UniProtKB/TrEMBL annotation:
<feature type="transmembrane region" description="Helical">
    <location>
        <begin position="132"/>
        <end position="149"/>
    </location>
</feature>
<feature type="signal peptide">
    <location>
        <begin position="1"/>
        <end position="19"/>
    </location>
</feature>
<keyword id="KW-0472">Membrane</keyword>
<dbReference type="GO" id="GO:0015095">
    <property type="term" value="F:magnesium ion transmembrane transporter activity"/>
</dbReference>
<keyword id="KW-0732">Signal</keyword>
<feature type="transmembrane region" description="Helical">
    <location>
        <begin position="103"/>
        <end position="120"/>
    </location>
</feature>
<feature type="transmembrane region" description="Helical">
    <location>
        <begin position="72"/>
        <end position="91"/>
    </location>
</feature>
<keyword id="KW-1133">Transmembrane helix</keyword>
<keyword id="KW-0812">Transmembrane</keyword>
<protein>
    <submittedName>
        <fullName>DMT family transporter</fullName>
    </submittedName>
</protein>
<feature type="transmembrane region" description="Helical">
    <location>
        <begin position="221"/>
        <end position="242"/>
    </location>
</feature>
<feature type="transmembrane region" description="Helical">
    <location>
        <begin position="189"/>
        <end position="209"/>
    </location>
</feature>
<dbReference type="GO" id="GO:0016020">
    <property type="term" value="C:membrane"/>
</dbReference>
<feature type="transmembrane region" description="Helical">
    <location>
        <begin position="248"/>
        <end position="270"/>
    </location>
</feature>
<feature type="transmembrane region" description="Helical">
    <location>
        <begin position="156"/>
        <end position="177"/>
    </location>
</feature>
<dbReference type="InterPro" id="IPR037185">
    <property type="entry name" value="EmrE-like"/>
</dbReference>
<dbReference type="InterPro" id="IPR008521">
    <property type="entry name" value="Mg_trans_NIPA"/>
</dbReference>
Length: 326
């Protein structure tokens, strides 16, 4: 097996791991209890399974970079969006639909085009004076997106904004990971330790925010947003701070803008698709949660004076009436 074939296979398996992790996160969000707090997923085995799959996907992606060129490995990472939809349809028996496929293909094609146009990294490194500034900027951006998400009433829109915050955290974690690797090779221990702390904080924030983004928003829209924002943020830092650019000069920059617009259009399509399915998502959460709610806590919402016995509740027993009957 050639190194190129090995790199492609590793990329495909890595994308599959990322897709499976997203599906696991969406399931945890769909079956979670309302008001459980941001740390509730830490008590769920499914969430830790998603963390393990994410780590496996990241590790395979790094190994793929050792066998193949960056121009091939990075665009193939966009296949996560394409893999996630049929996998979710297979596991949950939910049809993808034409809008879902169109949005996924647009987002994947746009992201792959954007990544393929990113130029090779230069020898410049992240300076010690730049690191605290970037850390403060990214934390402020993430906090602003979280506050913006709290103002959103539609679960899908709120999920997309939270996913953008998660992608921002992940993208900056990638930037600091590269800086930490350079510090390790240069034996700069004083700079390495703070970089590792920043990576841990950003990676943890990214995982928790991505988990929160799936709450009531479905799978496709938050996943595509995280998958797109992550490399875009890292590439933006490379262009603005490290002096990197795009291939083919000005023409490559214009093509990158067009590719970004295509990816954004895919996210919009997936967002509208998820918004149209919000009643189904809410009903799904109610059905799952109903099996865990004691009968005495389920109110009877029938009109006062309705004839007949109280309705049966899943799991046995009857619901206690929350109204006063004469």
């Amino acid at each position: 097996m050639s190194a190129l074939v090995a790199s492609v296979l590793l990329c495909l398996v890595s994308a599959g791991c990322y897709a499976a992790a997203a599906i696991a996160q969406e399931r945890v969000a769909a079956t979670g209890e309302a008001g459980g707090g941001a740390l509730l997923p830490l008590r769920r085995a499914g969430w830790w399974g998603a963390v393990a799959l994410t780590c496996a996907g990241a590790g395979l992606h790094v190994v793929a970079l050792a066998f193949g060129p960056l121009s091939l490995v990075q665009p193939l990472g966009a296949l996560t969006i394409v893999f996630a939809l049929p996998m979710a349809a297979l596991f949950d028996r939910r049809p993808v639909g034409g809008a879902g496929w169109r949005g996924a293909l647009l987002a994947t094609a746009g992201l792959a085009g954007l990544l393929s146009l990113t130029g090779p990294p230069r020898a410049e490194t992240l300076g010690s004076a730049q690191r605290p500034v970037l850390t403060g900027v990214v934390l402020a951006c993430v906090a602003a997106l979280v506050l913006l998400a709290r103002c959103m009433r539609r679960p899908v829109v709120r999920g997309v904004v939270l996913a953008a915050a998660a992608g921002t955290a992940f993208g900056m974690a990638s930037v600091f990971t590269k800086a930490a690797d350079e510090d390790f090779e240069a034996h700069r221990v004083g700079a390495l330790l703070p970089a590792l702390v920043v990576i841990a904080v950003l990676a943890t924030a990214g995982m928790l925010l991505s988990q929160a983004s799936y709450r009531g928003a479905g799978l496709a829209a938050p996943l595509s947003t995280v998958t797109i924002v992550n490399p875009v943020v890292a590439a933006a830092v490379g262009v603005v701070v490290l002096g990197e650019g795009f291939r083919y000069g000005l023409a490559g920059g214009l093509l990158a803008v067009a590719a970004g617009a295509v990816a954004a259009a895919g996210v919009v399509v997936l967002t509208y698709r998820s918004a149209a399915g919000e009643p189904d998502a809410v009903a799904r959460e109610i059905v799952v949660t109903a099996h865990r709610v004691p009968a005495a806590r389920v109110p009877d919402l029938r009109p006062v004076g309705a004839l007949g016995a109280p309705p049966a509740v899943a799991g046995g027993g009857t619901a206690r009436s929350a109204t006063t009957r004469p």
